[in-house]
Write a structure and sequence with these properties.
Rossmann fold, 3 helices
Length: about 100
């Protein structure tokens, strides 16, 4: 199975997204899920992104394609903030196994 692409987005694509992406990568690694986590600016979300995550106020304004699911979080550095996204990635994996 091809890795599921997760993009972590913020205003500038810098500090907030990098730190949040690090927390999310660790969760993905612990769960042994076939996914990659990269960062980008809100205006530069790649077309092949399956899941978009970031601060709720930013994610809610980003235009994405129909197959991209978005997840807004309030506490970027709290691992449990990504529980809903982790479950969605698990479900995606089960659908393609």
């Amino acid at each position: 199975m091809q890795a599921i692409k997760i993009m972590f987005v913020c205003d500038s694509g810098l500090v907030g997204s990098i730190m949040g992406a690090k927390v999310l990568r660790e969760r993905i690694r612990q769960e042994q899920l076939p996914a990659t986590v990269d960062t980008c600016r809100a205006q530069e979300v790649p077309d092949d992104t399956r899941f978009l995550v970031g601060p709720r106020r930013i994610v809610s304004t980003v235009q994405t394609h129909a197959t991209c699911q978005t997840f807004g979080v309030d506490a970027l550095l709290v691992a449990e903030a990504y529980d809903e996204l982790i479950q969605a990635v698990r479900n995606e994996r089960m659908c393609h196994d």
